Amino acid sequence: MIGHRPEKRDTAPAPLRPLPAQPAGVPWPADDWPVGELPTGASGVELARLLDATFAEPQPATTVQTNALLIVHRGRLVAERYAPGIGREDAQPSWSMAKSMLHAAVGVLVRDGTLDVRAPAPVPEWQAAGDPRAAITLDALLHMTSGLRFREDYVDEQVSDVIQMLFRQGAEDMAAFAASFPLEHAPDTAFNYSSGTSNIVSGIVARAVGAGRTARPGDAYRAFLRRALFDRIGMRSADPRFDRAGNWIASSFCFCTARDFARFGLFCLRDGVWAGERILPEGWVAYGRTPAPVQPADEEYGYGAHWWLLGDDLQTFFADGYLGQLLFLVPPLDLIVVRLGATPVERSAHVFALARRIIDLFRDA
Question: In this model, does residue 3 exceed pLDDT 50?
């Protein structure tokens, strides 16, 4: 999450609203999605007007460029719009929405007993005697409370650790690059949103699935993601990108169609169950949407475990990527909103306002 957000919201812990089950009689998406309609009445009219305005040419200067907007309500696709030149088969960048996919990949390994979030994180660079980083748990990494120094800046290359990691000296082995940073705070005492942290987690997953023991780095990791997650929920377009050491660059890169981003959202809104089969451990999605023990001090929204928290009374949680890639999940409304585009950080408030308006109109309906 980068930049200013409007309307600071309360993210104090509260009993979680239950996640909705797939409605009876609504099929799970296969090659295509079951289709529904927008609400009737005034809310439906306003939603249709809002969609038309969002994709009017030229697009509104407030939101700059929306490339795709999908709405799934009660398991049915009720709205799907694309900018000219972009279609439903076109894969689009995730940017940091990939972090929430990484949370799901970790969950598979937790369910298998391969990883334990409460245990010290198995990071080779931290195993020397007396290294204070050995106390960092996987739980702290997922909550972005590791205490590691890392500067998340996409503008000033001179101070940005994330630019150095993604495109400069850290690009060969991003997990090792991020793991080399020292502690700035004791673990679990400060929040620091960090793409480096996500790539440390990805390196843990890579080692757990044997990513370094194949002829081509990344092959084993890619195969794990396909068989354990993407193929099981039909995300055929999912295209994760890897560094030369075989680590999924899970901070930033998994290209998907808008429909497959929505598919991932449905999977999480259904508590990690797909077509009646449990893929994530029970309670794993709840863990992701429960406020972390230390919350952001300089952000407008709360944080869970590799998921952002809108802080509204609906307990909306969301994946957020650079330039306005957004996936909102609204449990009590059984609602998913996918917005993909190219909106500068300084105009991100307009994109959030659009999503909030859509959510409110479904609430009104």
Answer: no
